[in-house]
Structures are given as C-alpha cells and as structure tokens.
Predict the 3D structure of the following.
Amino acid sequence: MLSEVKKILWAADLPSHDEIFALADEASTVLESEINDYRQISELGKPGSLLDFQKSPLPLIVVPDLHARPLFMEKILDYRLPEDFVSGALTVFEAVEKGLARIVAVGDALHSEVDTKERWIAAEIEFASNIYTGPAISNEMKDGFAILGALMKLKSMFPANVHFLKGNHENILNRTGEGDYSFVKFADEGRMVREFITEYYGEDVLYLISCVENVLPLIAVTNNCVVSHAEPRFGFRKDQLINARSDASVVEGLTWTDNDAAQDGSVMEIIEELCALPSGPDRDKALENYVYLGGHRPVKENYKLRQNGKYIQIHNPRLQNIALVRPYRKFNPETDIVSVTNFK
Ligand SMILES: [Mn+2]
C-alpha cells in the first residue's frame, strides 16, 4: 500500500493521462459520498464543509501547506510517531492504515514556493513563446502532481483517516469567484498550470480535478483543536461552516486571510460555536484546552501565535514540520510541532 503512494511521489515522469484521471476519479467519488457521522450534508445536498470528529477523537496529525514538496510528503509518511501519541512505534502511514490516527492537511498541494522562483520565471518565458508544456512547467507539474496524486491516493485508500482541506491554491481552473481568486506569485502560476493541464492532458482531467477541489472540506474540529487553511476572517456560525460552499465570503474567509486581517476574537468565536459540550465546568475546561491551527501565511520559526495564543500558524515553507495533537491534553506548540527530517 505504502509502495503505491511512494510510486506516485517518486515517479520519474509526469503521470499519464489515465493515471491522473483514475486518481482524481476515485478521489472525487470517495469525497462526493463522504456524508456520514463526521461530515454532515450541506444545503446544496453535497458533503458539507465541516469535519466534526468530536464523537470519535483520535490523535491528529496536522500537515501544513505542501506546495509541491514530494520529499516532505514521503518524510511525513515514514515519520515514526512518539509512544505517547500512538503506541507501538508506528510510522504515520502505519498509524493511519490501522485507523489509530487521522491526518488533516491544510491544503495548498500545488505551486512550489521555495527555491523555484527561477523555474517559474523560465516557465513564464516558455509561455510567452506559446510553449505550454515546456521543460520548466513540466518539472513543476511533476512535483505538483506527485503531491496531489499522493493525497488523492491516500484519500481513496483511507477515506475516514486522511483528510485535506481546501486552501487558496486548490483552484485548478484559476477562476475568480465563489471565494477563489486567480493566483499570481512569482509568475502567472495559476494560469500556467491550467494551460499546461489543458494541453498536456485535456479538459477532462482539468474538470475532474476541479470536481475534487469543489467537494473538499474547509474546516475540521476535534475535542481540542480546530483546523483550517487560513486564519478565520470572521467568527462564522456552525451552519455557515457546513454550508460554506454556498457563501463565497466563508470560503474566502477560511482560505485567504492575510496576517492582521482577521477580526479580533474570530478564532474563539468559532471554537465556542463548534464545541459540542453543554455549558458547565467541563465545557469551560474544554474551551481553555482548544487551539486553532492553520497554515497559509509563512512563519519564520516553528510557529507564530495570534489571537491571544489561540491561533497557531505552523507553515514554515523551509522546514518539514507537522503538528501532533494529542486528544488527551492541550496542544503545546513548543513540544508538539516536530520536524520529520533530521536536519533543519
Ligand atoms: Mn495558502
């Protein structure tokens, strides 16, 4: 099973049309039918945007923005978990395979962002010459599809234990609207990726990947943690979170929020809104123990605290870190953000 994922991560070439089509087809089928005890149906009749794991707490592995980093993904799957997290000296992959832990990745699978500025600029030069599948963009897409492909494979293999939330880069059509904005950073990345896929694979693959993206959840809650791609712009209500796909401002508010742009107290409002416990000392204690984890905006060290320490940013693009949230105690950013590599 692990070898199938590693094959995707380390393929020498881009996946074939049929390979990427099959991965996206299977993942979209799994996601479209994910209506169950932890994922309520939305008013659109689709799986809602909230994952609620409070009834079945498990150790939670939070993966920050992946941004086309296959080595990071491999290191995560091979990382040996501490005994007080999951007993048995299991790796992340083994713990997920046995149903003993959950992965929640915060999204942003595509678009490399570290040490690849030159490659993006080279791709832009190719594009300016009307070459849409040249070497620079092809190498970029090989890395991006390694991550997207592996995530889709893992979701299909372990639907209840592997989850990835929509980030602002989950916008394969590069559209603006419904909470999405076309993406430009080093170059015109969003458009170049769309044109590459259209020419190299065809509209069917582009469409199928957009189907996967459109049914991704946007926020997850456990008994002591909330996770979304970005800091929540506002203190959304639970029904707004379940029905996020019918309200562009909720999608945008969970995927695009810049530093210092969130309304003060939005994090605590969402925690209070989602915590299922009835009022009383148990609930007060639970609220105190909750943290809200997100990626999106890069941090310099292992983490940065916002909103009185309740919101913890964990995405350092140069490090290979994951966050381990134990269900039996409060998350401690000093000890519970771990590197999956030996070097820093
Ligand atoms: Mn992002």
